[in-house]
């Protein structure tokens, strides 16, 4: 999902930046914040290892090639 899609599901489609702020500070293992990407298709950053770690996890999960 994109940050905007998460914001929309949470009830405010204009809160994509707020979703990013939450994801940036989240360290709970049961919240899969690595699955949230930019609406332009880019991976974005990941607070537990950077964008390359995020890309690695998404590849392992089969979400990207």
TL;DR?
With 65 residues, the chain is an all-alpha fold. The chain has helices spanning 3-9, 16-25, 50-60.
List keywords for this structure.
mainly alpha, 3 helices
Give a structural overview.
This protein has helices at 3-9, 16-25, 50-60. The protein has 65 residues and is mostly helical. It contains three helices and no strands. The longest helix has 11 residues, at 50-60. Helix 1 (3-9) packs across helix 2 (16-25). The protein has one domain.
What's the helix-strand series? Answer: HHH
Alpha-carbon distance between the two ends: 16 Å
Q: Please state roughly what percent of the residues sit in beta strands, choosing from under 5%, 5-15%, 15-25%, 25-35%, 35-45% or over 45%.
A: under 5%
Q: Tell me about the biggest sheet?
A: none
Helix content: 40-55%
Structural class: mainly alpha
What order do the helices and strands come in, and which of them pair?
Layout: H1 3-9, H2 16-25, H3 50-60
Helix pairs in contact: 1-2
């Amino acid at each position: 999902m994109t940050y905007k899609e998460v914001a929309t599901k949470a009830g405010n489609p204009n809160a994509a930046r707020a979703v990013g702020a939450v994801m940036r500070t989240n360290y709970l293992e049961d919240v899969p914040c690595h699955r949230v990407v930019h609406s332009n298709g880019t991976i974005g950053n990941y607070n537990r290892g950077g964008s390359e770690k995020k890309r690695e996890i998404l590849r392992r999960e089969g979400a990207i090639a």
